[in-house]
Amino acid sequence: MSDIIREIIETSADKISIFRLLDNEERKKIGECFELVRYPAGTVCVQEGAKINYIGIIASGRMRFERHNRITDKPNLLAVLEKGSHVGDFSMLPVRESLGQVRTVEDTELLIITHDKLDRFMQEHPQTGIKILKGISTVLSIRLKSAIDKIMVLS
Questions:
Q1: Which are the contacts of 35, defined by CB distance < 8 A and separation ≥ 6?
Q2: Looking at the 3D structure of the chain, how many domains does it have?
Q3: Closest Cα to residue 62, out of 107, 112, 17, 15?
Q4: Which of its termini does the chain have fewer beta carbons within 10 Å around, N or C?
Q5: What are the mean pLDDT values of the chain's consecutive 10-residue runs (155 residues total)?
Q6: What's the 3-state SS for 42-56?
Q7: Domain range for 65
């Protein structure tokens, strides 16, 4: 694991849902599966409808998650994602397309783990894999509740 990735994980683990339930040894093991990718401000990292094969964790910077509005023909801002947030979690489902577009608001660093690497890691370390999936499912539950709340306001 690179020194940069190690430092990000050590200093930010409590803010990153995937790492929050892991002890230091588990964080070191999973950290070896990640790579660091840098995007300049304004970069579209994920196109709406694209198939992606990774989960990305924002190590620094901010991103906009937008979905195209077919009525207004403009993007609707669904969320601003900050350090510790992750993208690509829905793409873990088989043959799923991105639900929206992800664009950097400022220079952004993402920790990336491919689905293949995550699958292999979870097969080799099933107890740690369960903790990682609990972290992901917690975030998805929070996002679902937020979406339901927004729908209820519109009803």
A1: 5, 111, 112, 113
A2: 1
A3: 107
A4: C
A5: 84 81 92 95 92 88 93 90 81 67 95 91 94 84 82 80
A6: CCEEECCCCCCCEEE
A7: 3-154
